[in-house]
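Teaching note: in complex prediction, the entire set of molecules is handled at once rather than each chain in isolation. The prompt given to students was simply: 'Predict the structure of this complex.' The entities are:
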Amino acid sequence: DTAVSQTPKYLVTQMGNDKSIKCEQNLGHDTMYWYKQDSKKFLKIMFSYNNKELIINETVPNRFSPKSPDKAHLNLHINSLELGDSAVYFCASRDTSGGPQETQYFGPGTRLLVL
Amino acid sequence: GNSVTQMEGPVTLSEEAFLTINCTYTATGYPSLFWYVQYPGEGLQLLLKATKADDKGSNKGFEATYRKETTSFHLEKGSVQVSDSAVYFCALENSGGGADGLTFGKGTHLIIQP
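The expected output is the structure of the full assembly:
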């Protein structure tokens, strides 16, 4: 069973379009995250949600809007896509009630290419 | 704020060579420290971690020791294989429980030649 899954795996789209990436975890974790990995492989957190509530919102354009319909899902919607949004987006989850012994589990990534 | 600095590659070694990838960090309190590995075209896999000073994380022949005095978490392996070729990320997590997410270094691309 896949612990953290993302769909789609690949996404190719035109500038100006609106797209969504879905993330689901079946681990019963209370916190989910979105990270962006740019073309130089640099990874940076975008958002963190704990029990469906926004905890962290790093300096991300407001064209990016995360939505958490329940604890097991954290979707990422992107409006008016730009060339610079091309990247790999990783979803992750963690049980934050478990203390430092717990770790984050990452999804396989969604490779977004904006043309 | 938090930051992680690691040697940038690519690092090219011959098979069976000794590997060290340096990682230093800046953080308040007592963060947890991690090494993640990313194989070509794949996602992130946790390689090892340490949650307090002097802890040693180990997995698949890789080791790293949490050194608070030098704020370091260097990754080592005694004899690398071609299959170890990948990008390695050092990361930290605040001691506050993980809701803040991970702060990553820029990654080190490791290439092992037969």
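Point out the following to students. The CA atoms of residues 40 and 86 of chain B lie 6 Å apart. The radius of gyration of chain B is 14 Å.
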